[in-house]
Amino acid sequence: MADVILRVENLFKDYGKFQAIGGISFQIPRGRVVGLLGPNGAGKTTTIQILVGITLSTSGKIKYFEKDFDKNRQYCLQRINFTSSFNTLQGRITVWENLLVFARLYSVKNPESRIKKLSEELEIMDLFNQPFQELSAGQKTRVNLVKSLINDPELVLMDEPTASLDPDIADKMLSLLERIKKERDLSILYTSHDMDEVSRICDEVIFLDHGKIVAQDTPLNLTRKISDSELKIMFDGNKKPLENYLIEKEQRFSYLNKNTVVIKTGEKQIPKLIFGLGKEGVYITDIEVFKPTLEDVFLEIARGGKNDRKN
Amino acid sequence: MIERIKAVLIQEYYISYRSIEVWMDNIFFPVMTALVFGLIAKYLSGENALAADYLILGMSFWFVIQIAQYSISLGALWNVWSRNLSNMFISPLSLTEYMIAQIISSLLKSIVIFGAISLMYYFVFNFNILKIGYINFILHLINLLIFSWVIGMILLGVIFKYGTRIQALAWGSIFLFQPLAAVFFPVSVLPPVIQQISLLIPITYVFEGARNNLINPVINWQNIGMAFFLNIIYAIISTFIFKYLFNKSKETGQFARNEG
After folding, report:
1. Which residues of B make CB contacts under 8 Å with A?
2. Across the interface, do A105 and B10 touch by the CB < 8 Å criterion?
3. Are A174 and A197 in contact (CB under 8 A)?
4. Residue A302: is its pLDDT beyond 90?
5. Beta strand A187-191 pairing with A212-217
6. What SS3 class is residue B13?
7. Closest Cα to residue B185, out of B195, B193, B196, B173?
8. Which of A201, A197, A263, A276 has the alpha carbon at shortest distance from A233?
């Protein structure tokens, strides 16, 4: 069994009468990327802030490397790191100076060579002499990433690291993360609003809503929980036989226009429906199938769907 | 531990070196103010030479307090403004290590500025601060520094707890003590009620003692001891207050919210 890097047990956070986190428990094994998803106000950022110790929990246990975080703060923080689009480095000083400060804060041996090695990997060598505040969003993200790897961490907590990036840079950053994760057997806790991003890099996804875990599984299994796919059929001629057939088969459908119908149905039903409609004499001109995505799961949870929720 | 303290000090050096505001606040404004006070003192010296010396002495020692307190409070604000303070406390850096680094940094800055101003007063206005006596000078300096660290620490805690909306306190509130501690004039000038408050402030004894030392440089252990005693009480109370405010800011989420 893989060793557990982070174990969160029954974590609560109350702000007066408002409960931001309502008793969440999860763990991150070594080498796994776990996504923390949820609508705004779900408690993602609060969870991360508690996990790195800048916000105090009301109750619950946090263990890194099976050691209690409260009692072994320095030991734990020495072996993890954090990056966020909401935090930046010191703007007045140069990239090199910032990285040197953090290398010393983490007591890195041979800080200069460590910084150079990482910077070469993440292609920021040419930024060394620039003040951090003068960098573009993409450059800042890369420098932040170097900072978050400076102590060779076993776990990196990432709070919406691509939030301020354009799609091209975000894609590069994700490729980079995929490579780093593979090379270093790195564990990552990743929050994001971008479902494609999460589907791409996360091995497991935790959905938070109102501070509670409402779903937790692999991205694939989560999408499977939404049984309905969308079948879009374009047809020629009379719609009566099509309508009759769909009503007979108790299918939910709606028209996009007079020759296009959208049917919400189970994935396994799709071949049968197409075959049946053909037999009924419906002249099908085109077919499109939309399988549920992680975004559909997210939307269902965000809109209050209860069927997939775990209590 | 030493490596992390060094890291904060190196960062302080980089920020100071690269920020014109730091140069203006820590060098230009103090030197200009000291120069103006020197000139006023020179003008007054014909009428009342002792009052003129009081002004120069008060100004010299005042900058020890102002720079040291400013350095501690502003040191954190530079990182809050850059949204970098959380990053620092997410590293293994402890609050104690951070405060030790800030105290060392403030000590270095205030000694450099105090030294520069003292040299200016010596060469331009013929005022030698060491005429109060070497030991008096060192003991007064220690008391002034402890007091400024106490105030800097409380202000830092208040900023952590209430956020940057009250950041002006960091550079403004120390001036409350300028009249209360009778920095430029004898305590007897203050109204009787205010005198009672004044006697509860450690630096009142420093300024009062230093003024007396201008005439008689014999060490007044009672004055120095009282300042030190009050400073220790202030330091103990302020450490508790600071820790309470820091924890409270983490409890309410304000510490993380400070950065956006």
Report:
1. 3-4, 6-8, 10-11, 14-15, 18-19, 78-79, 81-84, 86-94, 247, 250-253, 255-256, 259-260
2. no
3. yes
4. no
5. unpaired
6. helix
7. B195
8. A263
Interchain contact, A91 vs B82, CB within 8 Å: yes
Two structure tokens written together for B165: 């909306």
Q: Do the Cβ atoms of A42 and A20 come closer than 8 Å?
A: no
- The CA distance from A57 to B171, in Å, is 33
**pLDDT, tens digit, for every residue of B69-109?**
988 888 888 888 878 888 888 999 999 999 999 999 999 99
In this prediction the pTM is 0.81
Residue in chain A closest to B249 (alpha carbons) equals A55
Query: What is d(CA A56, CA A65) in angstroms, rounded to the nearest whole number?
Result: 20
At B111, which helix (H) or strand (E)?
A: helix B95-125
State how far the Cα of A174 lies from the Cα of A180, in Å rounded to an integer. Answer: 10
Between CA A304 and CA B232 the distance in angstroms is 58
* Cross-chain Cβ contact A56/B250 below 8 Å: yes
The token pair at B83 is 């949204």
Cα dist. A120→A95, A103, A113, A162, B35 in Å? 13, 16, 10, 21, 51
Looking at residue A24, its pLDDT comes to: 92
Pairwise CA distance, residues A62 & A79, whole Å = 15
CA neighbor of B58 nearest in space, from B197, B232, B204: B204
DSSP string, A5-29: EEEEEEEEEEETTEEEEEEEEEEEE
Residue type at A231? L
pLDDT tens column, B120-163: 999 998 899 998 989 999 999 999 999 999 999 998 898 888 87
Tokens linked to A103: 């290398």
- Domains annotated on chain A, with CATH: 4-91+151-222 (3.40.50.300), 227-291 (3.30.70.120)
Interatomic CA distance for residues B75 and A57, integer angstroms? 27
CB-hemisphere CA count at 13 Å for B160? 28
Q: How far is B218 from chain A (nearest CA, A)?
A: 46
Tokens matching residue A95: 């990239």
Scanning every residue of chain B, which has its alpha carbon at the shortest distance from the alpha carbon of A84? Answer: B87
| Least confident window among B5-19, B68-82, B140-154, B199-213 | B68-82
Q: Test A78 with B79 for CB contact under 8 angstroms.
A: no
Contact between A54 and B86 using a beta-carbon 8 Å cutoff: yes
